Amino acid sequence: MADRSGGTSPARLGLVEPWTTPTLEKLGWWSDDGPVAGAEEIMWALARSPDPHLALRTVERLAEAATDWPTIDAELRTDVGLRARLFALTGSSTALGDHLVAHPDRWLLLADTPDRHDPPPDLARRTANLLRAVGADPGAAPAGAPGGSAATLTGGEAVTALRTAYRDELLGLAAADLAAVGDASLPVMEVDDVAAQLADLALAALHAALAVAVAENAPEPDARLAVIAMGKTGGYELNYVSDVDVLFVAEPADATATRIASRMMRVAGEACFEIDANLRPEGKQGALVRTLDGHASYYRRWAKTWEFQALLKARPAAGDPELGQAYLDTVSPMVWKAAEREDFVGDVQAMRRRVEEHVRPDHAERELKLGRGGLRDVEFAVQLLQLVHGRTDPEIRSPSTLKALDALAGNGYIGRDDGANLAASYRFLRLLEHRLQMQRMRRTHLLPAEDDTEALRWLARAARLRHDGRRDVVGVLLDEWHRNARRVRRLHEKLFYRPLLDSVSRLPADAVTMSADAAKARLQALGWASPEGALNHLRALTGGVSRAAQIQHTLLPVLLEDLADSPDPDRGLLSYRKVSEALALTPWYLRLLRDEGAVAQRLMRLLGTSLLVPDLLVRAPEVLRLLALPGAGRPDELTRDPADVAASLLTTVGRQNALDQAVASARSLRRHEMLRVACADLLGLLPVGDVCDALSSVWCAVLSATVDAAVKQHTAQAPAPARIAVIGMGRLGGAELGYGSDADVLFVCEALDPGPDADAAAVKWATQVAETVRRSLGSASPDPALVVDADLRPEGRQGALVRTLRSYREYYARWAEVWEAQALLRARPIAGDRDLGERFVDMIDPIRYPADGLPTAAVTEIRRIKARVDDERLPRGADRSTHTKLGHGGLADVEWTVQLLQLQHAGDVPELRTTSTLGGLREAAAAGLLSADDAAELTSGWTMATRARNAVMLVKGKPGDQLPRSGRELAAVASALGYPPGGDPGVFLDDYRRTTRRARAVVERVFYGW
C-alpha cells in the first residue's frame, strides 16, 4: 500500500489487510491523501490496539448499529479516554465488543463523562444497579433476610435483564482496565484492584439472582438464607471468567430454602457466571443448604484439612447479613486450629499432589494456574503459611493472597524481598490470565503455544508489554513468563525455609526475622516432630562465617523442601548434619550438592528414609558422585554389572601383600558396593532380584579375596599341604542375600600329597586358613557385620570346622539326615580351589537329588521340622502376619515348599537342580508340579517378603524380620518399597498381608498337603 501521508499509512500502523483502507474511508477517517483532518489521533489509537484489525471490524459494526454514530465519531476525535478505551477494548475482547455492538448506546460507559474520575463503583453501587435491573428495591433489606427485597422480574425476563446489566458493568470495568493499553497517559489499574472489583461485581450479581429466586419461591416471612462466598470471590481476587464458589446457610434449611438456593444458582449461571457449591460439607453428595448448627457440627467432626484451607477465604456474600456473620464467627476459630490436627502434614502433601495431578503433561509448560511456578503455587503456599502462623497472629488472616503476602513479609514470616518479588510475579501472572479470559470471555489459564506468534503478539500488547530494542514484543512476553515462572518455582524455598535459616543466622539488628516460636511452629507444620532439634541442626550447619556455612545457607532451603517430603524429616536432617560434619574436610562435597541438583534431591530422599545409607556414606563418600543423573549415552552409575564389580574387587584386593591390608581393602570395596546397591534400591533403580544378586556377588568376591589372602599368608614360610574350597550355603549359595544376611558356608579341603598323615595335616592347615578368614572378616567394624557362619557343617557347631572331601562323603553316606540333604540344595562353590568345589558338588548331587525321590517318612519329617521351626523360633510378641521370615506366606514358607519339591522330584527332573528359589518355582511350574497360578502366588509372596526384609534393614540400619507396626518407621519402609510419599502406610501393610496370605494358602496345600 502506498504511503500517502508523509510517513503514516495503514500498513505502518499495523493494518495490513486489504480491506482496512476501504473500511477507514467508510468511517470517514482516511482519504486518498491520508488521514482525514482530526482523525490522525484516531489512527494512532487504533494502531496501539492489541489487535487493530479486530478493533476496526468491531468499530465498523458499531457504526452500522449506532443511530448516533456521528456523535460517537465526533467524541472520538476529541476524547483521548474514549479513543483509548474503545480501541483497546474492541482489540482485546470479541465478547465485550459484541456486547457493545448489540447495545451501541453503552459507548457512554467508555467516554470521559463527568463522573469518570469519581471513585470506582463500590459494592453498594454495583449491587443497587443490578437489583434495579431485576426490579428489586436497593433500599430494602437484602433478599434472604426477613422482609427482604424481591425482584419484580422473574423467569427468562429477569435472566435477560440481569445478563445485560452484568455485561454493562463488566464493559465499564474492562474499559478502565484496558485504558492504559490504548494510551500510556491514562492511569493503570493494578490487577489486584481489578480482581477486587470483579469480586464485588460477582457479589452484586448474587444479590440480584437471590432476589429473583426469592420472588419465584415465596419463603416464609421469618425464613433466613445467607450466601457465603468462597475461593477467589471470597478473597477479593476474582477473574473475568471464573466459577463463583459459595456455601448456603439457612434457618430453617428446608425444601423452600433448597429451591431458592438452586434457583439462584441457575439464574446466576444463565445470566453471569457458573456457581459452584461443591465446597460445601460432603461436596456434591452433601445437602445444598444446611443450618448454622449443621455446618458447625460437620466442621467439628468430619472436615478435612483442605476444607479449613478453603474457609480461609469465606465471607458473607448475599442474603441475611446477620446469619452470614454468625456463620463466619462460628467457623473462624476452627480454621485457625487446623494446623494442630494430627494429619495436617499428610493432608498438605496430598493437596500438593492433587494440584500437580491436574496438569496435563502437554500443558505443563503453558499452565498459568496449576503448572509449576503458576498462580496456584503462590496461593497454596500463602494459605499454608496463614494456617501455620495465623493461629497466633490475626494480622495475617486476610482472605486476599496479595494482602496476606504483604502481611507475612511485614511480620517477618517471609523475607521482604521474597514477598515483594512473589507479589510482582503473582500480579504479572494474573494480568496474563485476565487478558486471556477477556478475549472471548471463556475460562482459560493456558498460554498460547510458543509457535503461535500472532496469539502471543496479541497477548503481549494486551498486557502492555513493548519491544525493548533487543527483543520483539513476543520475545519480551516469553522471557517475562519464563522469568516469573522460575521465580515462583522456588516458592517453598522462598516462603517456607529461607526465613527459618534467617532466624538462626547472624543478621543485622534491624533485619526482620521470625521468632523461635514461629520457626518451631512452621517446622512442626511441615512435618518435623522435633522442631527444637531441627533448629539446633540448622544453627550448627549455618553458624559462623566460613565458606561452608555460606554454601549451607544457600543449599538448605532446597534440601529442607525435599526432606519435608521424606518419611522422616527429623532423622533425615540429623543424618545430613552428621554427614556434613563427617565430610567437612572433603573439598568437593558441598560443591557437588550445590552444583548437581539431582544429587542433592536424591540424597535427601535417601537420608529421610534410611539409617543404613548415612552410616555407610560417611565412610564411602565417593558414592555421592554416583547419584548424578545419567547423561546422554551414559547409563546410571548406580546400576553396575555385579560381575564387573566382583572382578574389580578381586583385582584390587589381589594387589595387597599383607592379609590385614587385603581385608581392609575388601571391606572398603564391600562398603562402597553395599552403599551403591542400597541407593539404587531406594531410588527404585534395581528390582529385588538384581539387589540380591549384587549383594551375593560382592559377598562372594570378598570371601574369595580373603581366602586367597589367607592362603598367601599361610604359605609364606612353607608350601601349602592342601587345597581348600568354600561352599556357599543358604542365601549365599542361592545368590539371594539381603543387606543383613550372614554368609553360610562349608569349608572343604584335600591333601596335595598321599600319605598316612596327609589328611590330618591338610585339615589342620585348612582349619587355620578358615579360622583366619572368619576372624579377619568378623573383627569389629562399624559396617554391617561380615559373619561367616559354618553351622550347617556335619554335626553342627560340635563338628570339625573343615573336613576333607572323603570325610564329607563318608559322613553323608552314613549319617546324613533329611534336613542336611535339604540344606545341601543350595550348595555351590564360591571361593578357593574351583576344581575341589566342583567335585564337592558332584559328590553331594545324589544326596540332594535322590534318584528314587523322597520316602513318605522323610516328607513327614520335613513337615514336622518346619512346624517345629514355626512354633519355636518365632520371637515372642512377633506378629506372624508381618514376620518376613517365619510369618505365614513369608520366606521360610516359600523356600521350604520349593525345597520339598526339589527333594521329591529333582532326581527325575534335572531342570529343578537349581540353588535359586525363584528359579525352582519357575521350573516346578514348567514341569507341571505346580500350577501357574500357585507358582505366581508363591513368587509374589517370596518377592514381597524379601523386599520388605531388605527395606527394614535399609530403614533401621540393622537386620530385622518383623515389619514395624505403625509410625514413621512403617512409613519409611513403605516409601522404600515405592509407595507414594505421604500416603497411608496401611496400604502397604494391607498389600503385604494379602500377598503373603495367598502364598500361605498354596503352602498349606502343596507343602503340608492340607
Automatic annotation (TrEMBL):
This is Bifunctional glutamine synthetase adenylyltransferase/adenylyl-removing enzyme. Pfam families: GlnD_UR_UTase (PF08335), GlnE (PF03710). Residues 350-496, 865-1007 form the PII-uridylyltransferase/Glutamine-synthetase adenylyltransferase domain. HAMAP family: GlnE. Keywords: ATP-binding, Ligase, Magnesium, Multifunctional enzyme, Nucleotide-binding, Nucleotidyltransferase, Transferase. Involved in the regulation of glutamine synthetase GlnA, a key enzyme in the process to assimilate ammonia. When cellular nitrogen levels are high, the C-terminal adenylyl transferase (AT) inactivates GlnA by covalent transfer of an adenylyl group from ATP to specific tyrosine residue of GlnA, thus reducing its activity. Conversely, when nitrogen levels are low, the N-terminal adenylyl removase (AR) activates GlnA by removing the adenylyl group by phosphorolysis, increasing its activity. The keyword Transferase applies. InterPro entries: GlnE, GlnE_rpt_dom, NT_sf, PII_UdlTrfase/GS_AdlTrfase. One of its GO terms (biological process) is regulation of glutamine family amino acid metabolic process. Gene3D superfamilies: 1.20.120.1510, Beta Polymerase, domain 2 (3.30.460.10), Nucleotidyltransferases domain 2 (1.20.120.330). GO terms for molecular function: [glutamate-ammonia-ligase] adenylyltransferase activity; [glutamine synthetase]-adenylyl-L-tyrosine phosphorylase activity; ATP binding; ligase activity; magnesium ion binding. Belongs to the GlnE family. Residues 157-328, 601-840 form the Glutamate-ammonia ligase adenylyltransferase repeated domain. It comes from Pseudonocardia sulfidoxydans NBRC 16205. Its EC number is 2.7.7.89, 2.7.7.42. Residues 1-500 are annotated as: Adenylyl removase.
